[in-house]
Amino acid sequence: MTATAHPYRFRRLPTAEVASRRVPVAVTLLSRLLGLSLLRPGRAGEGLLIPGCRSVHTFGMRFALDVVFLDRARRPISTRRAVPRNRFVGDRRAAAVLELPAGRGAEA
User: What percent of the residues of the chain are helix, what percent strand, and what percent coil, each to the nearest 5?
Assistant: First the structure.
């Protein structure tokens, strides 16, 4: 899989440049609900941007996530690294969330 490839279920979603990476934007109910859950680590691509979001869950995840909380200008305001499965994480100040496979949030 190339660095710019996205999982099949994200191929019809718009993309955005966030933290020096091009990621799909979760604009559908299903993409917002599922996020990166149920995907294998190698199929998660560069991650997923979830606009209008202050918290995420990791139920159904097959791998840990780096979760980057963004302000309205899509600048990082906080990061939770290696969030394990079956957790909720959030930041009240966030206007969007960037979900990344664990280890990829270091440069965000």
Answer: 10, 35, 55
Q: What's the distance, CA 2 to chain centroid?
A: 18
Contacts of 18 (CB under 8 A, 6+ apart): 49, 70, 74, 98
Count each helix (H run) and each strand (E run) in the chain, helices first: 1, 8
Render the burial of 14-35: b for 16+ CB within 10 Å, e for the rest: ebeebbebebbbbeeeebbebb
96 pairs with which residues across the strands? Answer: 51, 70
pTM: 0.88
Q: Rounded to whole angstroms, how far apart are CA atoms 83 and 102? A: 8
Count Cβ atoms below 10 Å from residue 10 Cβ, excluding itself. 24
Q: Quote the distance between the C-alpha of residue 61 and its chain's center.
A: 12
Pull the structure tokens for residue 16. Answer: 């955005």
Q: Taking the chain (108 residues) in consecutive chunks of 10 residues, what is each chunk's mean pLDDT?
A: 62 91 93 90 88 95 95 96 96 97 71
